[in-house]
Amino acid sequence: MVLRSIKRSAAFGLVVALVSGTAISGAMAETIEEALAFAYSNNPTLNAARAQLRGVDENVPQALSGWRPTATLSGTGGWTRSSAVGTETYRNNASISLSVSQALFRGFRTVNSTRQAESIVRAQRESLSSTEQDVLLSAAQAYVDVIRDTALVSLQRSDLQFLTEQVRAAKDRFDVGEGTRTDVSQAVARQAEAQANLNTAMANLNTSRAVYRQVVGMEARNLSANTTINALVPGTVEAALQASEIAQPLIRQSQHLVDAAIFNTKAIEGELLPTVSLNGSVARNWRPSTSVSQSNSATIYGSVSIPLYQGGSVSSRVRQAKEELGQARLQLDVVRDQVRANVISAWGNYQAASASIKAAQAAVEAQKLALEGVIEEQRVGQRTTLDVLDAQRELVNQRVGLVTAQRNRIVGGYQLVSAIGKLDAATLGLNVAQYRPKEHYKAVRDKWFGLRTPDGR
Hints:
Layout: H1 2-7, H2 10-20, H3 32-42, H4 44-57, H5 59-64, E1 70-84, E2 87-105, H6 109-175, H7 181-216, H8 237-247, H9 249-269, E3 275-289, E4 292-305, H10 313-379, H11 385-420, H12 425-428, H13 437-445
Antiparallel strand pairs: 1-2, 2-3, 3-4
């Protein structure tokens, strides 16, 4: 009866499903792709990063404003009292004027400021890509953790069922004089231990479900164990490193930040060059004096401003910008080294987990045979109850190790793809409307006026 209970164990069915990659919840199971698509659309961290990028997009039209004219409309109005010897006069006066100024040359500051803003926008897009990969990795890990902890809960329940049967059998043998009170106590102790392990496993499952709800944005229900990502994993570590040099958004972000630092230096140096502008104004005055009731004026003139000395502040800022450029270049090297280390580490973890699965599978099969043999030997008096309990504990531990190894291999695969830089919605083929940051950028880049955002706010 005990052997039949072991073979029908739901927990072992979960382990087999997890290892084989088959669905465990039927045709309507929620796949990991569906969970990742939901997280892609609804995760608040990712949506906040998108909003941050839309704010950074506005730096470009702000820089482009240096090409455009500025206009100011002003007006005055008042009351004037004049007095002389023996006379006093009173009059109301007012004026209105329109001034327009157009910069013609600003020491190339507008050109370089615009290029700097564009580089920062491109860097922020890569930052968004990195955030997207982090969110999708967290969602995938949360998904697999729920499956793992569900399997572990089922394993612990199966263990508790087995040990409950052992307690009953030990008591029966004691009642007919074939066993000892020690056998009963040992079985009861292991049963209590199994109950405690089940409680811990259930608590871990609740935690994993809570994390899943936080990252994905919905409750974990009816998940499928078909979570393989082997198709996206490179065949060798050299191929993974080569792919990361091209695809990793952190590297591309650092490259754009170097470009932004170059243009920032040039923009500050432009403050040392002359500024040329064209200015014009029209005005009308009512009763500017006691003898004139109304006057009109129009002015147009050009101006040239040549900076000679600014107290050393601009020179200091140029030197500061050059140091920041050097820092950005060094930071690019740091990021490249960090990415390389992450790829190698992820590759090693993935390979180790794959090897651990084979070892764990062999250990489970061997321990199953060992447990069956110990139970048969106990029946003929060659083994004790403690031997059976120890063999069952070892089998549970081996099954837990198998579930954990399979979880680590799946998560390791996602971590490796993320380290390379290819864990994105397009590469994964998620059935979701992909966010296109260039659409907002194009909508605001050449706006001359308007307070509403492209989405109407």
